[in-house]
Amino acid sequence: MKDIIRIKSLLSTEIEEVLNQQIKKEAQSASIYLAMASWCDRNGFDNSADYFYKQSEEEREHQLKFFKYVLDMGGTAISPEVTNIKIEYNSFREVFEDALEQEVSVTESIKAIASRCYKEQDFVTLEFLNWFFKEQREEEYKARRALELFEVIGEEGTGRWEIDRHIPKISYSSEA
Amino acid sequence: MQVKEVVDHVTFIEVFTTAHGAIYQSDSESCWYIDFAGKLARFDYRCLLKLNKAINSIDIEQKLMDAQSPDMEIIFICACDDTYVLTLTQIIHFKELLQGTFVMLDLNQIIYNRIYRTAV
């Protein structure tokens, strides 16, 4: 008897499901960053708005990477519904706190997928995830660094204007 | 009648059988034939997975406890040719049939991996 299921797809039903959940998570991240860009733009933090526009685009690219991988491996990629995106923030700092929380949540979610891959010995998907782990190092670093600026510059006086001026300069370069 | 004509030149391999139905695999067509609820229906790879998901997502306990709930369920799978209208008892039987089938398909995959696909 032919092994039709394996012939048709490399992914198990469970892995396909968690990858689709991740597609949704990345789409949500892209929308959240867009909402953050909108808030920053409305409140006069133009550099931060540009930073979040860029972050939103990156999240969309991540979403498509997962999307295409699922399809390429013979699975069904589901275009997700994204709802309940927060549009108002209490402070400039809260935007960056939420951004870091979002990145931490994405890292944890990818770790959970990897753990599932180990369990099923799906080393192909595991290898695919490696790129995302490296990417998350950068994303978390940037989000953490942005919050650090609030500490080192301070929000008093022209502090927030100064922080906004430094946001585009945040970059991560690691040899490892 | 149409199904019968198709079925005539297909070789069936029994995957799993219960007292209430059976699922057969056709290697030449790369699909499965489900003999259940008085009909023989053809399911390809995607449709079989969707059917399994649809059947497994029915909360039988909740339906049994809910006096307002009808004792029937319409199983409509998008992009599939067949629809099932099943009673709760039939759903329980269908669930059993599908679970057994997927265990056998998993077992078949393990056998393939061990015998043909692994170098050691």
Automatic annotation (TrEMBL), chain A:
Subcellular location: Cytoplasm
Main subcellular location: cytoplasm
Catalytic activity: 4 Fe(2+) + O2 + 6 H2O = 4 iron(III) oxide-hydroxide + 12 H(+)
Domain of life the protein comes from: Bacteria
Family, per entry: Belongs to the ferritin family. Prokaryotic subfamily.
Keyword Secreted recorded: no
Source taxonomy: Bacteria, Pseudomonadati, Bacteroidota, Sphingobacteriia, Sphingobacteriales
Species of the source: Mucilaginibacter defluvii
Protein's name according to its UniProt entry: Ferritin
Signal peptide (residue range): none
InterPro entries: Ferritin, Ferritin-like, Ferritin-like_diiron, Ferritin-like_SF, Ferritin_DPS_dom, Ferritin_prok
Primary enzyme class: oxidoreductase
KW RNA-binding (keyword) present: no
PROSITE patterns: FERRITIN_LIKE
Keywords noted in UniProt: Cytoplasm, Iron, Iron storage, Metal-binding, Oxidoreductase
EC number(s) on file: 1.16.3.2
Sequence ranges assigned to domain Ferritin-like diiron in this UniProt record: 9-154
Role description: Iron-storage protein.
Any Pfam family: Ferritin
Automatic annotation (TrEMBL), chain B:
Species name: Mucilaginibacter defluvii
Protein name (Swiss-Prot/TrEMBL): Uncharacterized protein
